[in-house]
Amino acid sequence: MSQESQHGKWTLSSSDDEDPPQQTPDGGSVGSEARQAAHYNQQNPVKFENKAPSASTKRKRETEDSGWALSSSDDEAADSSDRKRKQPSPKRTKVEDRRPPSPHREPDYKEEPEEFYETSLPPSDEIFRFYLNKVSGVEKKYNTGALHIRDILSPLFGTLKESVQFNYCFDIGWMVQQYPPEFRDKPLMIVHGEKRESKARLIQQAQPYGHIRFCQAKLDIAFGTHHTKMMLLWYEEGFRVVILTSNMIPHDWYQKTQGLWLSPLYPRLPEGSPSSAGESPTGFKRDLLDYLRSYRSPELEEWTQRIQEHDLSDTRIYLVGSTPGRYLGADMDRWGHLRLRKLLSEHTRPVQSEEPWPVVGQFSSIGSLGADETKWLAAEFQQTLTTLGKGGKALGSRNAPMHLVYPSVDNVRTSLEGYPAGGSLPYSIQTAQRQLWLHSYLHPVGGTGRSHAMPHIKTFMRASPDFTELAWFLITSANLSKAAWGALEKNSTQMMVRSYELGVLFLPSAFNMKTFRVQKNPFPATGPSTSFPVPFDLPPQRYGSNDQPWIWNIPHTQAPDTHGNVWVPS
Predict the structure, then answer these.
(1) Which residue out of 227, 251, 337, 443 is catalytically annotated?
(2) CA atoms of 220 and 498, how far apart (whole Å)
(3) Where are the domains of the chain?
(4) Which top-rank group of organisms is this from (predicted)?
(5) Residue 192 is a catalytic residue
(6) What is the CATH topology of the domain spanning 117-517?
(7) Does the active-site annotation cover 456?
(8) Which of 192, 251, 337, 456 is catalytic?
(9) Which helix (H) or strand (E) covers residue 347, if one does?
C-alpha cells in the first residue's frame, strides 16, 4: 500500500509495529552495517554521472526517485550476514582518479597541522564544562574552546595511572595511539557489548597490547546495545569522569560534531572518610556508583571502590542513564526517560508563560516508534520532556511544540565527509516507511559554523517560545528510540529498557540560575560564559517541501556530494 506525504511517496509495510532487529547474526549491529557501507563507499567511490541511468541502474535509482518506495523482497539480502558477504554489483565501477585523502581515514590523520593537536587546559572557572570536539576542515575560530581526544588524555589533565573506556565501537590500535607515549602502557579496560564473531574480532584487535583487559556488558534483552560512551581516568593527582558522544574510532573525532562533559579533577578523600563523604548536591557520586553496579561485573568492582575514595562534591550536573531490564515499582524511574522525568519533576519549577515552551531533540539515529505518534513519542516520551516541576502541566505540555533535528539528505550530501557521513546516521528504510507521521516533526541541521560537520552528538532541551532561554539541557548517548529511553509496558506498571546509555543533565537550579540564557554566538569561544552554548541554531527550521530525512540503506544518486560521488550501498 502506498501513501503520499509532503516528503514523497512511500510503500507501507504490512509488518507489525515491533522494534526491528538491531543486531546482526555475528553479534554486530545495524549501526555497524551502516558504517561498513560508508567505508565501502569511501574505498570504492562511484562518481556522479549527469546523464540518464542505464537499464541496469535504473531500477536501483527508482527507489530514491519515487520517494524511497521500498523495493521488492528479492532486492534485499536474505539476512544481514548475506549483506556482509555480498559482492558489489558488476555495474559499479571504481574511479581511477580518486578524491584526495581526507582527514577522517587513516593514515591521513598525520597530515593534520600540529596546531590541530595543540593542547591547552580549559579555563579553571568554566561553568558548564560542556565542550564540542575539534573538527578538521572548518575555520579555526569554530574550534576555539573545543577538545580532541588527545587533549582529554594529555598529561596536562593529570598523570594517568589507569583508565576505562566504555563505548559502542572501537578501533583499538587508533585509540591506543591517542594516549600520550608515556601513558600507552598504563592498564586500560574496555567495556563493550560485542558478542560472538564481533567479540572475537575486538579481542583480536587487542592482541598486540598486553595492558588491555575487557569487560563485556550483559545484554539480556533482545536488540539492546552497549551504547554508553564514558571514560574513567585515574591519576596520581585524583580521578576524572568524561561522558561523551564519540565512538572510539577515528571517523568520530575529525569531521563530525560531537559533545562531551568533562568533570573537574576529583581529589582523593582523607583516609577514614565515611562512605557518604564526597557526595555532590546533585547525587552524582551515588548515581555513578549505581550505574557501574548495574553491570554486575567483578571487573568494575575495583573502580567503584576507587570512586568511593574520591571527593565528587564539586559536580553540578545530574546523571541520566539507561541499563537493560524490566523495572517495577520504585525501580521504574531509576533509568531511561522516567529517570529524566523524575529529575525534571523534583529539581525544576513551572515557568509562567502564555505560550508553551517547545521541546527540541537532536540525534543521529531513529528507532521504530510505532504506527502513530500516540504509541510513544507524543505520549509517554513527550510527557517526560515537558515535565517542569510538580505542576509542569501549567506550561501546556500537550500543546508544547516538539522540534526534532535530524540531518536531511542534502545535509549529508553537502557535509565535509559527503555521503559517507550517512554511515553514522543509521535510519533504515524498513523503519522509516512504517512511521511516515514522524517526518512532519523533523528539522534539518544548521548553524554555528559547523553545519557541514554532521552531528553525532545527541541533545535534548526545553526552550522558551523565543528560543533565548532554556529550562534544561541534556547531552546523551541516547538517540530517538524506545530501546535507548525505555517504554512502559503492562498498562504502565512496568518499564522496559533494552540498551545501556549515559548522559548528563544541566539544570539551572544547580547553577543558582532560574533559566539558562542561550549563547547566541558560541564561536569563537572567548572564555567562561554564563550563557549556554547550544551546538546548533535556534529556532530550528522545518524541512522544506523537497527535504527528505537521510536513509542509509537506499541509493542517493540524484546529485553529487562534496567529493563528486554518489551513495550506492553495497
Answers:
(1) 227
(2) 8
(3) 117-517
(4) Eukaryota
(5) no
(6) Endonuclease; Chain A (3.30.870)
(7) yes
(8) 456
(9) helix 336-347
